[in-house]
Amino acid sequence: MIPGFGLGRRQFADLSEQEVLALAISSEEDDARIYRSYAERLRNEFPDTAKVFEGMAAEEDDHRTRLINLHKKRFGETIPLIRREHVAGYYARRPVWLIENLGIERIREEASGMEREARNFYLKAAKVTTDADTRKLLGDLAAAEAGHQKAAERLEQEHLTEDVREEEARAAHRQFVLTWVQPGLAGLMDGSVSTLAPIFATAFATHDTWTTFLVGLAASIGAGISMGFTEAASDDGEISGRGSPTKRGFASGIMTTVGGLGHALPYLIPDFWTATTIAFAIVFIELWAIAWIQNKYMDTPFFRAAFQVVLGGALVFATGILIGSA
User: Domain 10-161: what homologous superfamily?
Assistant: First the structure.
């Protein structure tokens, strides 16, 4: 299970205006570096697109300079050290080294998403500031980020065959994945794998199907509550664009519970070996279902996903049996 409830991270609403400016400065610096990495990656095969990303990086540098000048004017030379990872729910960036295996289409999608998230941040930041000059600058930067996003979308239209409807469908699909699939998958993995050891340890220690069912029920519901609250509390979705925390919390919590109950329910059958055989089969189906979802929605190669999930599940499964049989 995912430990913690976002402890040690600040809520955006608790940041001072100076900290909001400092966060914007560090974010602009990070984005400029990412765009230059994209440009370097694409330079040989797609030189025109590389020039676009270089121009976007230069604009991010200009945004950072304007933000620094405003900070000096209002708060002085010392800029607080605050970054994305210090703020709960703040939009994350894919580590630069992970773009090596991305195609140009995926890179364009990443860039479009970056600009959309940055625009949402500036709009939200402008609402919490009381200084007129700061509010104007943040509004101007939001408009500039929107212009970047439109440029990225034009790049897609020039090089891809999809029309506007397909673009909207991709955006809807992306939101569906962020709000439902990702937290649901995390919950299913947690519920399916983390409950294997206690359920099968109890089963082989007691050979009592009713006791095993009660342990499985408690483990599944407890894990579901924990995962649901963890997901909902970790990110309010306003800046990250991941959607309602309530929806994500329900998706994670329910799928965690389902993942555990899948191999706990067979122990309602009084015969121990019949119940255990059915539970074995359900575990096998659960693990392969997780691998299939990872492949379909997360672009994880199927056999790599299957190897990771099945191996991890098998180790936990064997641990439960060995402890229960001791």
Answer: Ferritin, core subunit, four-helix bundle (1.20.1260.10)
